[in-house]
Hints:
The complex is a heterodimer.
Chain A: E1 4-5, E2 10-14, E3 19-21, E4 24-25, E5 32-39, E6 46-52, E7 60-61, E8 64-69, E9 74-79, E10 88-96, E11 105-106, E12 110-115
Parallel strand pairs in A: 2-12
Antiparallel strand pairs in A: 1-4, 3-9, 5-6, 5-10, 7-8, 8-9, 10-11, 10-12
Chain B: E1 5-7, E2 10-13, E3 19-24, E4 31-37, E5 44-50, E6 53-56, E7 65-68, E8 75-79, E9 88-95, E10 107-108, E11 112-116
Parallel strand pairs in B: 2-11
Antiparallel strand pairs in B: 1-3, 3-8, 4-5, 4-9, 5-6, 7-8, 9-10, 9-11
Amino acid sequence: xxxxxxxxxxxxxxxxxxxxxxxxxxxxxxxxxxxxxxxxxxxxxxxxxxxxxxxxxxxxxxxxxxxxxxxxxxxxxxxxxxxxxxxxxxxxxxxxxxxxxxxxxxxxxxxxxxxx
Amino acid sequence: xxxxxxxxxxxxxxxxxxxxxxxxxxxxxxxxxxxxxxxxxxxxxxxxxxxxxxxxxxxxxxxxxxxxxxxxxxxxxxxxxxxxxxxxxxxxxxxxxxxxxxxxxxxxxxxxxxxxx
Lengths: 116, 117
């Protein structure tokens, strides 16, 4: 089974609208972390937001927020007031287990295109 | 401050050649990671260092892949006898490690795009 599932290969959104990028995960660990990264055409992975499995509140970072539903094992990224510069690939990733298991497992990504 | 840097940005190799990819992590970052990203896919973990110690190399696809970080800073990923299936973007990331706590975040470099002909 896939550990990280992103079911939207591509999305087109009008500029200034909000957009939700879906991510579901699969783990038997109680302690884990969820990350979202943005990858523009230049190729660099840019960290956006983090949610810990024990965090009671949804994470927010500027225009980015994470809709964390632990029971459903989903960690959707919400981008408010989208901008043309938001056009990129977006990856959801998970770090499992206690601190010391450092590697990230990534999903296949969603290509977001913002339309002027 | 400077981010993670990688060189070269692009590398074309003939099948059978050896290649070496370099990563300069963020200064002070203890942890260093290598990932492989095939076209249209998410990055896949290759190996992880804490300082100079290679703590996890479970993702290296074959014994043709070798990574080192001899002084706990710069790292080199070496691929021997390259094959066409090695064509991918190789991403390096670094993090604070233990000092970063549970939220320790990996910061990525721009990657090296390897094409094996």
